[in-house]
Amino acid sequence: MTKEKDALMVLSGGMDSTTMLYDHADSIALAVTFHYGSNHNEREAVCARYHCERLGIELIEIDLAFMGRHFSSALLNGADAIPEGHYADSNMKATVVPFRNGIMLAVAAGLAESRGLQAVMLANHAGDHSIYPDCRPGFVTTMGAAIAAGTYEHIELRAPYTGMTKGEIASRGKALGIDYSKTYSCYKGAEKHCGRCATCVERREALAEAGITDNTPYED
Amino acid sequence: MTKEKDALMVLSGGMDSTTMLYDHADSIALAVTFHYGSNHNEREAVCARYHCERLGIELIEIDLAFMGRHFSSALLNGADAIPEGHYADSNMKATVVPFRNGIMLAVAAGLAESRGLQAVMLANHAGDHSIYPDCRPGFVTTMGAAIAAGTYEHIELRAPYTGMTKGEIASRGKALGIDYSKTYSCYKGAEKHCGRCATCVERREALAEAGITDNTPYED
């Protein structure tokens, strides 16, 4: 019996959402990626296109250029504004794009309802991201309730990686045979990963933890 | 003592949000209006600009053009697609723009956090709008919880008209001296209100209920 494809997935092209795309390809009818005005984001989108084409999943790209114009975030201000170090460092708070997951999920919910789909999927996960309030389990639960209440068909928010660490996600990707050199993480957004910003540090730790040979070219 | 202006308000330029703008002008630091690709919406925006300028409140206009391209709704398909009659009629379901309030509130929350504001305000109200799931009290409550959970400063969603009918809102506007001929409602989006679509019917009933002489020029 073939599983019905009933979900729209928010796909960045980073490690986590790419893993979920392969992991749940049998239920994903449509993926959506957002352009919100950072180099990091544009390099991720190249990866999102590559994996959707490979899996035969339709990808919609949505322009949220107003975020670059009106929102405050170091992530939207170019490479020099990105702090180096670990997510736990307090200076990483500067990289928050306010309520980004809320905005992406809200658009995804409207798009899912327009297409007659039953669910939206997000690849949030456990770990250092507690610095980002819109990545925490309490946000995912309440946003899921708002999406269910605000749509005719009570669209469901699925976030199956909420309790998993990035290392556990990488282990799952290893089993799925994912080539992580075809994902992008670095907040600095250069062609080559810097290797020193919090997203690079986290990426390297997760790949090492999963026992994956890391073929990503790093500056450092 | 001057009340601190700590809120961002979602303003369409229709009767309800215009009334709230005057009613709560002492707490509104910033208003935001959205362009999502309908004539109706563009005519509302003209009114939003007029009232913000009059009250000295900054207005940000945000382009959500992707909704016109990717979302299904009669409201986004031109005047001929708009049904006539009352909101209670089942054909009005065609005018739903999926999760529109969710999307506008999510963007408003991110913008409020970027500006260091404490609250977002929405002029949803009681009445026939139960056909729109993202206008119901259950949505407003859960979306408020998601915004509080997903922002650093636990931004609050204020919806002080949730329990009021449109007639009661018009009565409040009468006391505030609002000129409702400078608000726009018609879903058909022509220069002159059609007088027959559900938004026009509701507008006329509310103004009559409040004992306001209706100076709006109607086609019908």
From TrEMBL, chains A, B:
Gene Ontology terms, MF aspect: ligase activity
Cofactor binding remark: Binds 1 zinc ion per subunit.
Residues that bind ATP: L11, S12, G13, G14, M15, D16, S17, T18, T19, M20, L21
Annotated residues for binding of Zn(2+): C186, C194, C197, C200
Pathway: Purine metabolism; 7-cyano-7-deazaguanine biosynthesis
Catalysis performed (reactions): 7-carboxy-7-carbaguanine + NH4(+) + 2 ATP = 7-cyano-7-carbaguanine + 2 AMP + 2 diphosphate + 2 H(+)
Entry-linked PANTHER family: 7-CYANO-7-DEAZAGUANINE SYNTHASE (PTHR42914:SF1)
Membership in a protein family: Belongs to the QueC family.
Name assigned to this protein: 7-cyano-7-deazaguanine synthase
Species of provenance: Heminiphilus faecis
Encoding gene per record: queC
